[in-house]
Amino acid sequence: MGKTKLTKSNFTKYSLISLIGVAIIYIIPFIIAQFNFNPELLNFKTGIFSSKAFIISAGNTIMFMAVFVPIIVILGFVLAYLTEYMKFGLATKAAIILPITVPVLSIAGFFRDNMDGIFKMFSGGIVVGIIFLWSCLGFTYLIFLVSLSNRNKSIEEAAYLDGAGTIRTIFKIIIPSHTEALILSIIISIYNSLKIFKQTYAMFGEYPNYDMFMMQNYLYLKLKRMDLESLIVSADIFLIFIFCVLIAVLAFGKMQGNKLSR
Questions:
Q1: Which of 33, 62, 145, 251 has the CB geometry, 3.0–4.6 Å to 80, for a possible disulfide?
Q2: What are the pLDDT digits (tens) for 146-172?
């Protein structure tokens, strides 16, 4: 009992330290910054929404997340499923996982020096998507791989004995049974999609093509020019959007969990 209490005490202590650090670095500065909030910038005719740069960056960001987050989640699941059921070797696993350990500048340099043909063949948004998939696929792959490796195989075997095919078993049993892994992989992918700015900045600088211009580029330029009022309003709008997306994802996970518990 003493050991358990000590473990819980340590967990509480370290969690409190982490929360204090997050508050000092992120939450408190964010709250202080709200004193620069200018409601007039919410005007659709003269405010942020009348800015062409804001509209382009917001549209590109939403489109990027809507297209490539589902793709990376699906690819992660498919590769994890094939790994688990076809027993991929260590080399294949390493090839999928290792890109997430590569530094940002190395990724940017690799694509800049070796992918000129891709840049000429595809639009900027697709190029950014390819970089995103290559550098972040390992996260969703690992989440699904760990979840699938701890699955209850007897349920799948019973389904096969009852005549269920592979596709039906995947959609009716395997995916619903790993809803938590699915939700976690979606959240991680959304987070990673917001970090892609680092790679695009290292490759294309402050002013990439319009189809590569994301919300992070817009916020960075506002910060560089010290346009704090526009920066705060834009960041708040973007934060609300991300918050709504996360609530929708968590609500979907809760709904799926309720179905399984019935």
A1: 145
A2: 888 887 777 766 766 666 677 777 777
**91's tokens:** 């080399």
In which element (H, E) is residue 109 found?
helix 104-114
Which of 156-159's residues contact partners 24+ apart within 8 Å by CB, and which partners? none
Write down the mean pLDDT value for the chain: 80
Task: Answer yes or no: are the C-beta atoms of 174 and 227 closer than 8 Å.
Answer: no
Please give the angle made by the CA atoms of 223, 135 and 64, to the nearest 5 degrees: 60
Write down how long the chain is. 262
Model confidence pLDDT, tens digit, residues 88-107: 777 888 888 888 887 777 77
CA–CA separation, 164 and 150 (whole Å) = 21
Do 60 and 217 touch, CB atoms closer than 8 A? Answer: no
